[in-house]
Amino acid sequence: YLDMHNYFRAQYGASALAWSDDLQAAAQSYADSCVFANPGDALGAVGTNMAAGTGTFEPTAAVQLFMSDESSYSAANPTYSHFTQVVWKATTELGCAAALCDSIFDAPATYHVCVYNPAGNIIGEAE
């Protein structure tokens, strides 16, 4: 997770993230819940990205899915997305985890959750 995030962040002039065991533990706890929805404030004042897929759905595929929102981003009219959270310049820490879930799709799925600190995607602070 970390290497992929930092690879994409470097392309946008954002500093490398540091891995956080605390954020990873929060991500694991949320992934284990198998709730495929934004956790809101349940994890605290952090940012989150989530992705789920059936079959072979590795961490690299999850991060690439986060980055796929890049094609719909416009600096002239910024909208916040998975992509903007990945490259948000003020974010300094990352923790991610995965769980196998039977309740997201009709088939077993791998559910990836990434937690970011500080949170990105703050209205009025587009970076």
UniProtKB/TrEMBL annotation:
Residues covered by the SCP domain: 1-124
Protein name: PR-1-like protein
Residues spanning the signal sequence: none
PANTHER family listed in its UniProt record: CYSTEINE-RICH SECRETORY PROTEIN-RELATED (PTHR10334)
Organism from which the protein derives: Laetiporus sulphureus 93-53
Gene3D superfamilies per record: CAP
Pfam families (alphabetical): CAP
